[in-house]
Amino acid sequence: MKTNIKSFARAAIVTITLSVAALLSTTAYPAGKLNVYNWGDYINPEVLTRFSEEFDVEVTLDTYASNEEMLAKIQAGATGYDLIFPSVHMHDILYKLDLLEKTDIYKHPDFKNIDPQALRAKTDPKGEYCLPYAWGSVGILYNKEKVQDIKSWADFFAIPEKTGEKIIVLDDMRETIGIGLIVNGKSVNSRSKEDLKLARDFLLEQKPKISAFSYESPPLVMAGDVAAAHMFVGVMFLVMQDPEKLGFVIPEEGATMYQEDICVLKSAPNKGNAKKFLEFYLRPENPALNVQQQMNGTPNIPAIALLPDELKNNKIINPPADVMSRLQIFEDLGADLKLYDRIWTKVRTAQ
Amino acid sequence: MSTPKSRARKQLTILLGPVTLFLGIFFAGPLGIMLVFSLLEPGLYGGVEWNFYHWNYGRLLGWADGLIEEFDPIYLQVFGRSFRLALITVALSLIICYPAAYWVSRSPDKWKGFCIFLITLPFFASLIVRLYAWLLILRPTGFLNHVLTSLGLVAEPLDLLFSRTAVLIGMVYIFVPFMFLPIYASIEKLDMSLVEASKDLGASTFQTFRRIIVPLTLPGIVGGSIIVFIPSLGNFIVPDLLGGAKVVMIGNLIEQQFLYARNWPFGAALSMLLMAAVLVFLLVYITSVSRQQASETIRA
User: Fold this and answer.
1) How far is A226 from chain B (nearest CA, A)?
2) pLDDT band at residue A24, thresholds of 50, 70 and 90?
3) What percent of chain B stands above pLDDT 90?
4) Confidence of residue B3 (pLDDT cuts 50, 70, 90)
């Protein structure tokens, strides 16, 4: 969900397995193994290589395209994975389903590096199970040659009528209904029918202006085929390559944020190595290395100080407190998810 | 000593045994699971609770499950839309394939092989990759508009991306080979002396086509239509990629239920309805075609 690669992976249902250690042409046979199951393109391969070299462990990486895909696979009995990277609400669900291994990572001396605010999972307030991994916002990517001064969701949805250009929103139930809730000043975790009706009516009103629901928007925005798109902050890697042409903004009305945590599965075959990875990832230089490729936020505070200036001072990647206060994160809604499903089908079906 | 009858029976068992076993385990089994699941209560995080739950089918017909607001036959609309898209796809690919197959089957043998090769060529690349290629061709700054504008055929770039036209182009593009091959096979077998006889007896070209050629190649048309209809009904990659996912198809709806909505029983109910609808549709189609064929034979 974090990158434009998402539905490539989803549609093709291709799992890319990358054996980092095998690529290193090590002469000695690695002492241990670590099987990582992560979102597509959601970790700097360099980080895995470092871990592999330092601990003489063969690391394999499989990828998924959504929390639900990962959960479905684990629930269906997929074994062999050690580390997974669920979003915070999925971290809660996995805990409730008793699929997580207790690691007591919070007892490690380096755990002081972690921003206490990043312990967002309700079921794991101390960090007894998982380690906060990375976070980012979901905002608007736009092409400055097509539109200027995009600051808010109102500006975004006004583009088609004002300029005749196209806009794309994410093909994501929670994210897109989230916009409808945010513009109405409601929580993105609202379970109130009234709030959701407001969100639905807002989206139905915008529907004729929306060109597509898609994760594939960045190349189209770059080419100018589409003026602006609802997108994850990971797209900053494109914006920073061409800041004259592309812009990314966290809308004034507010936006959603995501955070993933690194968790060890109860069924993990290599629990020792998995815990070693959590400890390894507490050391600031490792998350710092990751951020330089992923362009998202890290909960490891000393890691931010190690970043090059253009990342350290970037207000999108490391937003100031007033922007942070406008960001909302998804919670697990339990059975009330049905309300969202019904609205999502309605919005997607309307013509 | 085994009688011929018992030997035949033994032979039949050996020939049909493996396929029966295979379909029994891998087709009937899952189908049974789906039927049972469609009558159960959804589990909170996927899976099912083993309680009888009749709401799945009610919800499918529009009742709102006592949740958000009023009666709304939204899921039936999705079915209707998927059927319409599938039917249009069948019609368009038939119109494109029939003349082409006719021409290929009448051309010299060395061409035939080459043409068949060309038709099957797309299968060598992944469907997703080919659809992405269409995205690149159709977009405003894409290949098609480059060609058209530089030839001066259009002043403004055509706005095809994320349109209904793009969806139809993609659907027909994918399913053309499936329509072409069965039609080609039946035209190939067409006895040309019957066509000549019809002309000799004074029938016009249109009469010959309608009364002789079409009835004789009907098995190919029916076969091709069915092979195109069923997968296009479940297809949602084309509407998602080329149509901008603005319209939900049955396929998306089922995927949505199993993954994001975590409602397996409702997904199972949707699948059961889809299967039932396809069965009924095919029964009606095949009986009407064979009745028509029978009446043609009587008239002839």
Assistant:
1) 9
2) very low
3) 34
4) confident
pTM beyond cutoff 0.80: yes
**Which residue in chain A has the smallest CA separation from B159?**
A225
Domain positions in chain B are 73-299
Q: Within chain B, where are the H helices?
A: 4-23, 29-37, 55-60, 74-106, 109-120, 127-138, 143-150, 164-188, 192-200, 205-208, 214-234, 237-241, 250-258, 264-299
Averaged pLDDT score across all residues of chain B: 87
| Cα distances (angstroms) measured from residue B111 to each of A350, B94, B104, B115 | 48, 22, 8, 6
B→A interface, C-beta within 8 Å: 44-47, 64-65, 67-69, 72, 74-75, 77-78, 81, 126, 128, 135, 139-142, 161-162, 237, 240-241, 243-248, 252-253, 256-263
> Is residue B1 pLDDT above 60, yes or no?
no
| Cβ distance of A216 and B44 shorter than 8 Å | no
Nearest to A349 among B77, B135, B139 (CB): B77
pLDDT level of residue A17 (50, 70, 90 thresholds): very low
Q: What is the DSSP letter of A319?
A: -
Rounded to whole angstroms, the Cα distance separating B224 from A166 reads 38
The distance of A71 to chain B (nearest Cα, Å) reads: 9
Tens-place pLDDT, residues A146-202: 999 899 999 999 999 999 999 999 999 999 999 999 999 999 999 998 999 999 999
Thinking of the domain B73-299, which architecture would CATH place it in?
Orthogonal Bundle (1.10)
Residues of B in contact with A341 (CB under 8 A): 256-257, 260-261, 263
The one-letter amino acid at A101: E
Selecting from B65, B162, B259 the residue whose C-beta is nearest the C-beta of A211 gives B162
Q: Directed axis angle between helix A285-294 and helix A45-55, to 10°?
A: 150
Domains of chain A: 6-134+259-317 (3.40.190.10), 136-256+327-349 (3.40.190.10)
